[in-house]
Design brief:
- By secondary structure, this protein is of the alpha+beta class.
- 48% of the residues lie in helices and 10% in strands.
- The chain is globular.
- The mean pLDDT is 94.
Amino acid sequence: MPNRLAHETSPYLLQHADNPVDWWPWSEEAFAAARRRDVPVLLSVGYSSCHWCHVMAHESFEDPDSAAYLNEHFVPVKVDREERPDVDSVYMEAVQAATGQGGWPMTVFLTPDAEPFYFGTYFPPEPRHGMPSFRQILQGVRSAWDDRRDEVGEVAGKIARDLASRSLTLGDTAPQPPGEDDLHAALLGLTRDYDPTHGGFGGAPKFPPSMVLEFLLRHHARTGSEGALQMARDTCEAMARGGIYDQLGGGFARYAVDRTFTVPHFEKMLYDNALLCRVYAHLWRATGSDLARRVALETADFMVRELRTREGGFASALDADSPAFEGEAAGSGRHVEGAYYVWTPEQLRAALGEEDARRAAAYFGVTEAGTFEEGASVLRLARQGDGHDAGMDRIRERLLAAREERPRPGRDDKIVAAWNGLAVAALAETGAYFDRPDLVEAALDAADLLVRVHMDHHGRLHRTSRDGAAGSNAGVLEDYADIAEGFLALFSVTGEGVWVEFTGLLLDTVLRHFTSEDGSLYDTADDGETLIRRPQDPTDNATPSGWTAAAGALLSYAALTGSFRHREAAERALGVVKALGPRAPRFVGWGLAVAEAALDGPREVAVVGPDKDPATAALHRTALLGTAPGAAVAVGAPGAEDAADVPLLRDRPLLEGRPAAYVCRNFTCDAPTADPGVLAERVGAEAG
């Protein structure tokens, strides 16, 4: 019989709806039940594409004996971390403080007042590698609750008080954004962490450093630093040639388990692909690299082909696991990590024949020994070059067609507002750079869904939706900030002023409900659900932090509108980057990228001319291809309604009857020009 999760919309929660565990969703009712029964709460947090979440569910939550014990002595609560990042953040902070590490599945035991007192991640069904079994953990926690209640309460209260005291403030004096010396120190810090042999930063596991790459590209554009460009270019090439990139279907996996980007953890997340699509498009813009162009377009096409939903939004993720289709496990229903993506020489021969299989094996690095499990290999580019070869393109198509016959990984089809905002920005820019109006149209469709389904007329957001219906969870700071970023990119590409208007609504909410008096930001609204701590984190994780994403959107909006209030809020928010950037640059990459824009101006580019005039289009394209960090671009016809709504376009006449471009910076404007070549010099345009 299904449990309470059967009424939820999250695919992750629905995966547990038929567990024998009597799960509750996160709710006051769950904690009221714990108080009434005088039992602790087991909080289990995960997400649909998490491999070890599936493992623990199969081993423990689907086991009738474990479930019976759990139901008798606890109130079990299941949370989708992608749906409730606020809950995840608060308790993950406690887990990391107590254990020195974190991850998912996250397993936390709480008092009925939601105060944590025991922590962990994955627990096996029996003792293993020095780890206690899940049943032993349950029994130990029950014993402590029954026999040492005062001690448990004291520990929980101390942890809750410690978490509540961690609020980050910027002090009484007006915080300053990073200056030239701060950004140079951040670059030096990245240089020390850089892996010159394999690209990227640090060792295994190695994650795509999307936000850091944006900083490096912007720093190069502003200063001409060849070292910054080389780190960005070499890292992008290493990822594009490695197994972390899907060499057949495009798109990136979440991370590599090694330092060479060879073997990935195979789940594919919308946010990674949106961020990396934009990085590679910007790398092409800076260098004209054919490899960067190919990867940007293939990643955009992957998002549209594999993640787009019927409603026009983009699904959250594809699972790492898929049903086994060969060997003893075939037809058993057992899911195997990476099964959809890896190849053996025998599988290549079956799909291609002997001669082409031999060629494909050499090209993609497929060997009898393999690079993955059971002699299978993850495809990577084993030879030099940009990966574009007409003969290999045909082989790729045949292999992709053969792969399509395999059982596919599951898809988490909920729409997360923030990640769709990132996708809007990436698709709009990629479509504009490479003359792909279909990608711009996909960005417009997703933006329309965000307005229709996720946004109310007061500028408040719902975090998620599914099948066109909004979820019940309120938007968090990153939702407002990333959607604002996407809408501003969409305006720069389309010239439709409505996207600036929507951005203004979202940022008004950020300033009113997420910003403290000293300019620091919180991840949840001041009128949202009260947790044991109001979450607040200025550091990047897999995506830009809500804090620094908001700073970027505020800065760009100020450049378009001339709003001093938004500019001041952006600069105050960047104060935390001045503090963290030189010491921990890998964890504030987006904040550093925004700081580059602030230090450069950012430049404000207004293109005026009749719509569909080739001269207007040439100036507009030149402006979009400018590498000046975070340049704000507006395009419109003189006297048009949209132009009147955007202050940057006001009072900008044609130049002797011809389309013209105006470039301003720091309250000073250059003379207007009708020459794309002159405009290119003013905005740093190089590619295309």
